[in-house]
Amino acid sequence: MSEDKSEYEKKIAKANAARNRQIERQKEKLASADYQQKLQDKQKAAQARAYEKNQARMADPVYINEQWEKKLKASKRQAEKQAVKYAVKQAESQTAQFQVNEAAAVYSNEEYDKKISQAKALQEKSLKQATQNPSSKPTNKSTKPIKRKGLAGRNATAIEKRLANKIGEIGCICCLNKNWYTTEMQEQESTKFISLHHIDGRTKPWAHAKVLPLCAYHHDVPAPSHAPLELTPIHRGNKKEWVAFNGTEDALLKQVYEMIEEDQPWLLTKA
Fold first, then answer.
1. CA-to-CA distance for 232 and 47, rounded, in angstroms?
2. Does the residue 229 lie in any domain?
3. Distance between CA 67 and CA 61 in Å, rounded?
4. Which residue, of 127, 131, 172, 219, is most buried by count of CB atoms within 10 Å of its CB?
């Protein structure tokens, strides 16, 4: 057993000595300036070959087409993702905009008829009081309709008339946004009960195209006491409160033109 152990130890020592000699030779080789120069030359040659290979690939029409196709596919995927995000955002925005306040009253056809009748009665009463006011000066032209204060302005152009007619067919934009306005109401109401509210005077360029279709209670007639607080006229009322309930006039005007699928002509004129 001792002889076998001695032989084993000799083999181990011999192997260790060989490994140490190999390490020393490797150190000497690495320390050699010629060897270092060969390594650098080898690396430079490899880099040059890689550069030439890359340049040849970049000039290859097949490779160029493949890269363009990849970019187009990536752009298409990105556009599809953006379209989905935009559609979801628009749907959420419309849902929030048209969501019905559960605490607000939902008008039936009978209630809406009643409100229209009350509005017409108030308008007739106001007109009658104006004509019978003793302080007003007599006039021989009694057959002509009495002009309301603030209604004076220039005549509408043909384009303004066409746009105004299309806008009037929408119905009250505020009732529509609050989901108070149904198809049955529109058929029953017809455009003659819609007032076109001018948001930029009556004499400026495109003034008669910058109009909002409003019902009497959203325009200039106070709502009955049992109506929701949100139903308030923009005239004879609190305009800031009206804007808070219904949105700004500019935002509603933009929505109206999107609904009639027309461009806002004053924007085209500026462009």
1. 78
2. yes
3. 10
4. 172
